[in-house]
Amino acid sequence: MEVPPELQELIENASAWSNEAFVNISENCYGLEIDNMNLYHLMMLDGIESPFLKGGEIQDTDIALFLWIVSKDYSDKDKKKQKEFFNKVTKIKNIPAINWIKNYLKKTFIDSDTMNRGGKGQAYFLSYFVDLFAREYSWNYEQIMKLPLRIAFQLITAVNERNAKSSGETYQRITELDNTINRYILNSKSGNGI
Prior knowledge:
- The protein has a two-stranded antiparallel ribbon with strand order 1-2.
- By secondary structure, it is mainly alpha-helical.
- The protein has one domain.
- Residues about 115-120 have low confidence and may be disordered.
- About 20% of the residues are buried.
- The protein is built from ten helices and two strands.
- Helices cover about 65% and strands about 5% of the residues.
């Protein structure tokens, strides 16, 4: 079975993304400086029910709010900074911005375990992260909430693999990358492609 170029590119990119996550440098979105997503960002975006996370139709305000929340400039107090930021965002065309955000999210969640949507929800997800890192590394709440998700997902895997090995078990996980590969395999057998 021949792997399509877009899937091969994703597999190669995933490895690079995993490694570059630990450098933790900001990204440039058409002149806007964007941080790596952390738990604070995720909870705020979840709270405003961003269609980038929840699905649905994407409006101009959704793009602006998403980029504002994950930007280096974000402040919930400085209205002048917020206004300046939103003026910059209005100069970015929607389709490129949407594509940039989708790629940003793909990089953020590529190493995440597949999450059971509609299961225990975001509150459980947050408490799981805080509990795991506080117990494992003795990090405080602030440190955990500011940890980029791209790093957190990889650390969770390392902790779970180590704990499983010390218990004589095998740790198995399915990541978002695995899901993409699996969808390709299933669809190629049905003749539909990706």
